[in-house]
Structures are given as structure tokens and as C-alpha cells.
Design brief:
The protein is α/β, with parallel strands linked by helices. The chain folds into two domains: about 190 residues, Rossmann fold (3-Layer(aba) Sandwich); about 110 residues, Glutamyl-tRNA Synthetase, domain 3 (Alpha-Beta Complex), CATH 3.90.800. Helices cover about 30% and strands about 15% of the residues. Strand 5 and strand 6 form a beta hairpin. Helix 6 crosses helix 7. It is elongated. The N and C termini lie far apart (about 45 Å). It binds glutamic acid (GLU). The site of glutamic acid (GLU) has 7 residues, from loops.
Length: about 325
């Protein structure tokens, strides 16, 4: 008898650099959450930002994830029924979704978004949250829109958020009642140069790939209502479980990000750090391992629960790093 598979999780790295400790933390927890429920895992490469993504990082990321002891069932290396697993090969899907949303009147051209251009294709992490969009271009007349387009003015395509709030229950942060002002109001779907926004690509791919569980950093919490709204308008099922986990911070209290090059997994590996020691430390910080002793990811599965994770962000100071 085949067992019903109820959970489909995903690991969704962006190949904009080598994986660092913050990524290892997030991917370990996403992997544990899914595998602890005997779920299927999809590996999806999020490379829609042509300026920042590099193919050579894809190979390095796969190698790092395997070194950590994490595995997946579908992905660019394994294939599967939901491919392609690389977002730059899924552009036709995104264009089709924008077309559908436009036909239903949920999209409008916006001529005032230059400041957003740079970061649109990336998940908005803490330092990227901008002001609420005041709706300037939402109610422009068709005549003015046509005139501006005829003048060759650049425009992004924005999604009109009709709902004033979105409710969902987060497996880590609890019940959420988020207002349009919390997520920034109407948001962009496509840059003026044609690059698709992170919000659209991620929401659509999660639905098309049958993802039911999304585990990611709590700094992305405010993207979730946008992704839920998009899927509602597209008539697609949103993931049934979202879990926004605490962040791993450095000794200065900053989110570990790509700029902290010395903390890449590749650098740690070069220094001879064993993956089990790293998993031991990360799982200790996550409340899943009492003593930070070396352990394999799969040996943490039996005792994993979201309720064990710390409520606040976690600091990884130099002393702990040295212990590796
Ligand atoms: N590729 C995104 C990132 O690196 C993933 C965000 C998400 O899980 O939705 O931040």
C-alpha cells in the first residue's frame, strides 16, 4: 500500500552568491519541517534577477546542500513532474499569469516606481522594506496611460490589492491579521525592463508545483499576504502551511546575508569544519539539540516541532563559531 503524501515543501535558493550560515539555518529548518512529516521536497532555483544570478552558483549551492546532508525529490538535477525547476526557464508561465490578471482588471501600469527597480526580483528582506505605495497610478484614465506609453515612459505593472487585509495562521508566528499598509499596498509584478517580480514568480511556482508548506525567514512574513492575494485572483490554491522562522544574526545583531563572505559554507568546509558539527550548532541554536554536539540532519527528524523553535531571532557570536 502506498502511503499518502500530504506535505510538499520546497528549498528555494537564489543563485546570487555562495550559501552562508543564514541560508544553512533556513534550509536545515525547512528540510526538517518537511521531512519530519514524511513530506516531499522540491528544490527550485530562483534566478529571475538577471543582474545578480550566476549559473556557477547553482552548482555550488547544490553541492553545499548535499554537504549539509539535505536531499530533495525533485529539482534541476533530478527532474520531476513539476519542472522546469529553474525560474528563468519558467518565464512563459509568469507572462501567462500576468495576462490572466490583466484581463480581469487587477493590473495597471505604474509610471512612478524607479526606486523599486533594483530589488523587485529579489525577496524583500528586512533592509528592503519600502514605504506604502500611495496608489498614484491606480486611477489614471486610459487616455493618460496611453499618452504616457506613447511618450515612451517606462512603467512597471502593478497588482491592485482590493482586499484591505489578509488573515492566515503562521506555524511559528501564530495567527496573522495583516493590513494593506503592513505589506505596502499595491505591489509590482513586472519591472519596466520586463523582469518578473519575486512575488509573482514565487507565488505562482508554489501553486504550480503543488507546494503545501513554505518555511522561510520571518523577514519575508509581509510577502505572504501578497502571495496569497495573487493566488486568490489566479484561482490557485495557496500553500496550506506557512512558517516564518526566526533569523540567524551575527554578533552585531545583523541578519546574516551574502555580504558576510567568511561565513560561507564553502569557507567553513575549506577550514575543515565537518557538516555534522555545523548541524549540531545550528540545531542547538534552534532548540532542537540540547548540547550542540555533532549530529546528522536526519537524526533530528524524530524530535522536530515548530513549537521548539525560539520565539526571537538567534545570535551566532564569534565564540560559538570558533567552537566549530
Ligand atoms: N529565493 C528567495 C530568497 O533567497 C526565497 C524566498 C522564499 O522562500 O519565498 O530569499
Amino acid at each position: 500500500m502506498t502511503k499518502d503524501i500530504t506535505v510538499t515543501g520546497r528549498l528555494a535558493p537564489s543563485p546570487t552568491g555562495l550559501l552562508h550560515l543564514g541560508n544553512a539555518w533556513a534550509f536545515l529548518l525547512a528540510w526538517l519541517a518537511c521531512r519530519a512529516q514524511k513530506g516531499r521536497l522540491i528544490l527550485r532555483i530562483e534566478d529571475i534577477d538577471p543582474q545578480r544570478s550566476r549559473p556557477e552558483f547553482v552548482t555550488a549551492i547544490l553541492e553545499d546542500l548535499r554537504w549539509l546532508g539535505l536531499d530533495w525529490d525533485e529539482g534541476p538535477d533530478l527532474g520531476g513532474e513539476h519542472g522546469p525547476y529553474v525560474q528563468s526557464q519558467r518565464l512563459a508561465e509568469y507572462a501567462y499569469a500576468i495576462e490572466q490578471l490583466s484581463q480581469q482588471g487587477h493590473v495597471y501600469p505604474c509610471f512612478c516606481t524607479r526606486k523599486e527597480l533594483k530589488s523587485l526580483a529579489n525577496a524583500p528582506h528586512l533592509e528592503d522594506t519600502g514605504p506604502v505605495y500611495p496608489g498614484t497610478c491606480r486611477n489614471l484614465s486610459e487616455k493618460i496611460r496611453q499618452e504616457r506609453m506613447a511618450q515612451g515612459l517606462h512603467y512597471t505593472l502593478r497588482f491592485a490589492c482590493a482586499e484591505p487585509f489578509v488573515d492566515f495562521v503562521d506555524a511559528v508566528c501564530g495567527p496573522q491579521h495583516l493590513l494593506a499598509k503592513d505589506w505596502g499596498g499595491d505591489f509590482a509584478l513586472r519591472r519596466s525592463d520586463g523582469v518578473i517580480s519575486y512575488q509573482l514568480a514565487v507565488a505562482l511556482d508554489d501553486a504550480l508545483m503543488g507546494v503545501t508548506q513554505v518555511v522561510r525567514g520571518r523577514d519575508i512574513l509581509f510577502s505572504t499576504p501578497k502571495q496569497i492575494l495573487l493566488l486568490r485572483r489566479l484561482g490557485k490554491k495557496a500553500p496550506s502551511q506557512y512558517a516564518h522562522i526566526p533569523l540567524l544574526l551575527n554578533a552585531q545583531g545583523e541578519r546574516l546575508a551574502k555580504r558576510h563572505q567568511s561565513l560561507t559554507l564553502a569557507a567553513l568546509r575549506c577550514r575543515g569544519v565537518q557538516p555534522e558539527r555545523l548541524i549540531g550548532l545550528l540545531s542547538f541554536l534552534a532548540g532542537l539539540n540540547p548540547h550542540a554536539e555533532a549530529i546528522r540532519a536526519k537524526d533530528l527528524l524524530a524530535d522536530f516541532a515548530f513549537s521548539l523553535l525560539p520565539k526571537a531571532d538567534v545570535c551566532l557570536d564569534g565564540r560559538r563559531l570558533e567552537s566549530l
